[in-house]
Design brief:
With 249 residues, this protein is mainly α. 71% of the residues lie in helices and 0% in strands. It has helices at 2-22, 32-47, 49-75, 80-93, 102-120, 122-125, 155-171, 183-207, 212-240, 243-248. α1 packs across α2 (32-47), α3 crosses α4 and α7 (155-171) runs antiparallel to α8. The chain starts with a helix and ends with a helix.
Length: 249
């Protein structure tokens, strides 16, 4: 993890020094550190675009083959072994990996942990190599990005709202299912509702105790991710044409 923290800290420092060299005066309302965090977030989200594309493709294929998947689950609900075999055949037929979209989540989690530790001690991870100890840490109403946002309706609320919108956008591509008579579908729908409403609410309370710099990264990352997903989906819908109809038929 220290390796990732050092990479993250060095990247923020490079961006910070670039801003310090090209901009004559640091803005009073937003520090170079805050701007560097935003730019670093953009860089990370851009580097992760291939994984975002993979996740969206997995979601789209899941939606396409969902009727056949549900049919298999209903038909073989009393025979789990046969159900798994038929599902494997279905996935192989369409070259679909149900877990293909998880890699993005697995990679983002250690980045968030590393960001948390970097913002706990920016003097070490960001400015340790330069010896800089006096630097602005403000972001508009926040005086110190290494400490929690003092306003309840500030970044914690903004992050919760962007988390909700991001989850809603992600789930909009999932197949619509009727859970009646199907316990597995009912459980899945319940989990989706928990992710949609429960996770943002939980993150709101968690964010109130975390450094504002981390929550700034998180909230800005959600916005950038939604923007990229919107563009990627538009491009995919244009390029794929009638692929979905062909698979359904």
């Amino acid at each position: 993890m220290n390796f990732l923290q050092n990479i993250l800290g060095n990247l923020i420092r490079v961006v910070y020094e670039f801003l310090n060299n090209v901009i004559a005066t640091e803005p009073e309302s937003i520090s170079f550190l805050a701007i560097a965090i935003i730019i670093t977030t953009f860089i990370f989200k851009t580097l992760l675009i291939p994984l975002t594309v993979s996740q969206i493709k997995t979601q789209k294929m899941t939606a396409i083959i969902s009727p056949k998947q549900q049919e298999i689950q209903r038909k073989y609900k009393n025979n789990p072994e046969m159900m798994q075999q038929k599902l494997k055949e279905l996935y192989a037929e369409h070259k679909h990996n149900p877990m293909g979209g998880c890699l993005l989540l697995l990679i983002q989690f250690p980045i968030i942990i590393a960001f948390f530790r970097v913002m706990q001690n920016p003097e070490l991870y960001i400015f340790g190599a330069t010896g800089v100890t006096d630097f602005a840490k403000n972001f508009f109403w926040i005086q110190d990005l290494t400490k929690p946002d003092p306003l309840i309706y500030g970044l914690p609320l903004i992050n919760a709202v962007t988390q909700f919108l991001y989850a809603k956008m992600t789930m909009s591509s999932q197949p619509k299912t009727d859970p009646k008579g199907d316990p597995q579908m009912a459980q899945m729908q319940s989990m989706n509702s928990m992710m949609l409403y429960g996770m943002p609410l939980m993150m709101f309370f968690v964010a109130r105790s975390l450094s504002a710099g981390l929550i700034l990264y998180w909230a800005v990352g959600n916005v950038i991710e939604m923007f990229y997903r919107f563009i990627i989906r538009k491009v995919m819908d244009r390029d794929e044409g009638g692929t979905a109809n062909e698979i359904r038929n």
